[in-house]
Specification:
80 residues; 55% helix
Length: 80
């Protein structure tokens, strides 16, 4: 059978590199206290949205229970 010849895998030249230890650069960004306001806002919005979702879920469950009770009352009234 004929088999295709695969190309040779090129090898990279091996060179020794030395890692130099550098002192960490001073941070040029904003201090951490400037992030407290936006983080607090995100947390508050998350809590409010979670509370709204819970309120919608509880309302849906109560409407479903009321529908089942009304359905059973109407079906019992027709049977009598």
């Amino acid at each position: 059978m004929l088999r295709p010849k695969l190309p040779d895998i090129p090898t990279l030249p091996t060179t020794l590199t030395t890692q130099q230890s550098q002192a960490p650069a001073p941070s040029a960004g904003r201090p951490l206290t400037s992030y407290v306001g936006p983080v607090a806002a995100v947390v508050v919005v998350g809590i409010v949205l979670t509370a709204l979702l819970a309120a919608v879920a509880i309302s849906a469950v109560s409407v479903a229970i009321a529908a089942v009770v009304l359905r059973s009352l109407v079906s019992n009234a027709h049977k009598r």
